[in-house]
Amino acid sequence: MRIERIHLKNYKRFTELVIADLPRTARLVVLVGPNGTGKSSVFDSFLLKAGAAANNYRLSGDKEQYYEKVPASRTTHEVAGRVTIQFHGDRPVDWTSAFQVRSAYRNESDFQINQIRTMLPTHAGSRITRIIDGDVSVSKNYERMVWRSLHAQSRPELKGVTFGEYQKTALGDLQEAMRGLFSDPALLLQDFGGHQGGSFRFTKGDTTDFHYKNLSGGEKAVFDVLLDVFMKRDDCKESVFCIDEPELHVATALQGPLIAAILKLLREPSQLWVATHSIGIVREAYRMHLERPGEVVFLDFSGDDFDSSVTLAPSTPNRVFWENMYQVALDDLSSLVAPQRVVICEGSKKQNVKAFDAQCYRRLFADEFPETLFISQGGSGEVIQSEHLVSILNAIASGIEVEKLIDRDDMPDGEREQTLTAGIRVLRRRELEEYLYDPEVLRTFLRTEGCDAPVVEAVLNERESLLKGQSGPPRIKVVSRQLFDAIRRLTKLPTLGNDRQQFASQFLIPALRVTPDVYRELREDVFGTD
């Protein structure tokens, strides 16, 4: 069972979030982004929706508990009604096993089971109701494993098979996963119900009968996740498995291979969702993406304003994606991950101020030029005189290619040619907005949004009217705020962003990218001809 679309309205972090266009082929969905952006809240919505549908979930009576962005109602089903989850296919959903969710708080340092109780099915209910809950599962899975083995040996086809022989057969895939992750020293599950019983015992290197409590924190973390997937995979063959921060307590070198091992354990119809800050996990997922296109999806929660309506679609792991990922994972060290080319352009260079031109260039060219980084350095004069910055960039990473790009403004043809000859790139048009609000780009955007011909012509006529109404040379940048307001009024489209810059970034950049003549002209201005 695989998710196609999610809609969350007034739920936890989100005013309105739509996660759309998830392909049927996706086996792994990776959620990335800074803390507090709502990745874990998506998992909480799974728990709420499934629990409410199966009538085994109730909202906490704690009035301080955060369920709704704007508190209005408190019943479980009213809040769950704001969560819509659409799956691929038309089969009815078994909500009791639809989601298998692990929180980030997975820790069971020791246990001893002296009596095995009658066990419920693996998928019955959930150990947690919120993603912030403590998630203790190793001892429960120990009981299930012993119970399952005792019942299996009563089957006629296993008559004469010793308990030890059964364990070797039954644990084959789990042992293979452990063998692939722990090789120096080797760590394998030795016993789960032998002469001492009560807990798991391992072989570690040359040591045998190694008690579970003596494993390191990282070894326990890996074993816990692998064991849980292994125990559930047959009872939950068509479930969505979710793990919040699977990298916790796990060495960096093991984080990527752990995700690969989990996917190998899961049955084919299942889907794995992980929320992570781990570069190792994302790199392993990217490797899978390259090997098996369509099986891995990335959802980037960076840079969106979740106080407004946001639609997330699968992200391409381009330069912008990796910049965001490194910024979250490495913070100040992220600057050491150098691109192949840096383009110094106009725009504010103050910290915490959005550099509009650089942001637009990054989004526009991220797929075709993933190893290019655009940075703002003030006005055109500051860009031209930025040799100190060029020197710093060359010192950080030898061989890096640095270009300078400025707006044309009022520059005549002859001066532009001289500036180009001096090695500084100059736009053919006055400024970036001349490309963003080009009539053909606007036409592409409006048609993509389903606007009919009269609306398209009304917007283009408004553009011309605003330009003619200026004194002096027409400048689209000067009237872009008025044009943005006119577009909202004429199209009546509800989700065009809160301001003209957000509108340009989210809507005009994608339209420009697929408007061939305008894109080709701007591409040549920025990068030159091939």
Walk me through the structure.
With 530 residues, this protein is α/β, with parallel strands linked by helices. The chain folds into three domains: 3-309, P-loop containing nucleotide triphosphate hydrolases (Rossmann fold, 3-Layer(aba) Sandwich); 338-426, no CATH class; 433-527. It has 19 helices and 16 strands. The chain has helices spanning 39-53, 76-80, 138-152, 163-170, 172-181, 217-232, 252-265, 279-291, 319-330, 356-365, 380-384, 387-396, 413-421, 433-436, 439-448, 453-468, 476-491, 500-513, 516-527; strands at 3-11, 14-19, 28-32, 83-87, 99-102, 187-191, 201-204, 207-211, 240-244, 271-275, 296-300, 309-312, 341-345, 372-376, 401-406, 425-426. A five-stranded parallel beta sheet has the order 5-9-10-3-11, sandwiched between helices. A hairpin with a 2-residue loop joins strand 7 and strand 8 (207-211). Helix 5 (172-181) packs antiparallel against helix 6 (217-232), helix 15 runs antiparallel to helix 16 (453-468) and helix 15 packs across helix 18 (500-513). The mean pLDDT is 85.
CATH architecture of the largest domain: 3-Layer(aba) Sandwich
Distance between the termini: 46 Å
Q: Name the shape in a single word.
A: elongated
Strand order of the largest sheet: 5-9-10-3-11
Proportion of residues in helical segments: 40-55%
Specify the structural class. Answer: alpha/beta
Return the average pLDDT rounded to an integer: 85
Say how many strands there are.
16
- What is the name of the CATH superfamily of the largest domain? P-loop containing nucleotide triphosphate hydrolases
Radius of gyration: 28 Å
Strand content: 15-25%
CATH class of the largest domain: Alpha Beta
Which fold name is given in CATH as the topology of the largest domain? Rossmann fold
Uncertain segments: none
